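Subject: Sanity check before I submit

Could someone independently write out the structure tokens for this chain? I want to compare against mine line by line before I put it in a report. The sequence has 115 residues.
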Amino acid sequence: MFQTVGDFIGDALSKNYLDRSDLFTTDKQVLVKVKKYLSRDKKFYYLWTRMNNKVTVENNKEDFDKHVFCKSRVVDPLFRNEAGKLLRFSDTFTKWRKVVKDELKPKEYFLKWGN
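---
Independent answer below. Compare away.
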């Protein structure tokens, strides 16, 4: 999602369909401004359809268009146990410890979009 939106906005900025100040407005204002270019620009229209989930994408390590990394969003909160001691959730629940260990690694994707 972040990659497709970023590609779309980047293309719009590079072609002066948007300017930097537009990024501080609302989504609706940006969309109104860029929609007029969709019928005039094939690449821009393709990025639009890709951003709106109209283009298939697969994770393909052998044949990809973009190699991206996503940081972890896993959390390991503190809590007080019955004795009032402050602990990490993963220190108490071993299943969660494994989740935290596995999920802390950045996610790596090899994105291949269809046509």
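---
OP: Matches mine. For the report I'm noting this point. Residues 68-111 form one domain.
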